[in-house]
Amino acid sequence: AQKSRIAITPGDGIGPEVVAEAVRCLETLRSRHNLNLEWTRFPWPSHAWHEEHGESMPENALDQLKAFDAILLGALGDPGPVDDPQRYLLPDSISLAPLLDMRKGFDQWVCERPARLLPGARQYLADERAKDIDMLVIRENSEGEYVSQGGRLRKGTPNEVATQMEVFTRYATDRIIRYGFEQARLRAGERMKQGRTRQFKTLDGRTSESQVCIVTKRNALRYWGDMYSEAFEEISKEYPDVATHHELVDAACMKFVQCPWAFDVVVASNLQGDILTDLAAVLSGGMGVAPSCNLNPTDAKMPSMFEPTHGSAPDIAGQGLADPTAMLFTTARMMEWLGRKDPALAAAGQKLFDAVAADLAENAGAQRGTHEIGTAICHRLESN
Ligand code: IPM
Ligand code: MN
């Protein structure tokens, strides 16, 4: 197969620490399985870069990244050194913009955030059924509340008005919903292979192996809510084997805590998906284990971006305390994605996933540092 190339952007805070462990695992996999894989590091910590250049990444960052098959990102966002009185004065828009620029610039219109409570992960819910939590939240990643349209009128006066527009197109709605149904089928197929089954009810009362739940706030935000619902209805007819379900976002929050095991695939708008996936991350054991990816499934020339759900965690940065598990699950997903071009990479991704999951299962509740966890997982990869 052709060589696959990864751009690695460690970013800020704990980003470089967890990325270092991902790179060690990639090195181990590459040499052990002779993978045709290479990577290039782009050290663009937003604070330092900003101080020097007034921006958090070089102006041509996207052009540089475009040449790669995938981007592996640690975390972005840096309030500055703890002893700096200017701390937190760096505008968020500067340190975070690259993330949103990449999603937009490479049309990464799908954000996949699985939440599965794997053995060994911290179980926040007391209910025994929490062990069955296994959902995939699919966040619309290209528009909606994140279009950044609006402004501030009469800024700084008592009569100031801020407007923030939300834009939903039928085009982006259809494609994300269809993607959700496709994932539901794939997941049911995967479960079948592993001898796991789940039962949902279709609208006409049949049982089904999979389900898609659409989330809106249709009772208050009528226009997009209605459009989402109609698109969902129509597209669901192409997937009679998949059960369907509609939740309002507030009720979805409640049910994520009350009965998260009842969800399979969940499709949500950009902002609602953002909020729901922090909640879902906790259901799966916390930010330390929650992977994420930003995909462009339609244009193979555009790199997809893989970053854990967590941020740069400045409070624990530089201490070797961050859990690299989320980053490593994210890396495994990246390898699976690259496997579309080179099946050897998908196989390596599966090995990585299995090693991380086994490490988690065997070290439930253990207090271990970033490097210690990475080392244990590398050892597993060497002997598997
Ligand atoms: C995420 C983050 C970002 C988002 C922020 C950092 C802009 O919260 O990836 O979930 O809102 O998308
Ligand atoms: Mn978020």
Automatic annotation (TrEMBL):
<dbReference type="GO" id="GO:0016491">
    <property type="term" value="F:oxidoreductase activity"/>
</dbReference>
<dbReference type="GO" id="GO:0046872">
    <property type="term" value="F:metal ion binding"/>
</dbReference>
<protein>
    <submittedName>
        <fullName>3-isopropylmalate dehydrogenase</fullName>
    </submittedName>
</protein>
<keyword id="KW-0479">Metal-binding</keyword>
<keyword id="KW-0560">Oxidoreductase</keyword>
<keyword id="KW-0520">NAD</keyword>
<keyword id="KW-0464">Manganese</keyword>
<feature type="domain" description="Isopropylmalate dehydrogenase-like">
    <location>
        <begin position="5"/>
        <end position="377"/>
    </location>
</feature>
<dbReference type="Pfam" id="PF00180">
    <property type="entry name" value="Iso_dh"/>
</dbReference>
<dbReference type="InterPro" id="IPR050501">
    <property type="entry name" value="ICDH/IPMDH"/>
</dbReference>
<dbReference type="InterPro" id="IPR024084">
    <property type="entry name" value="IsoPropMal-DH-like_dom"/>
</dbReference>
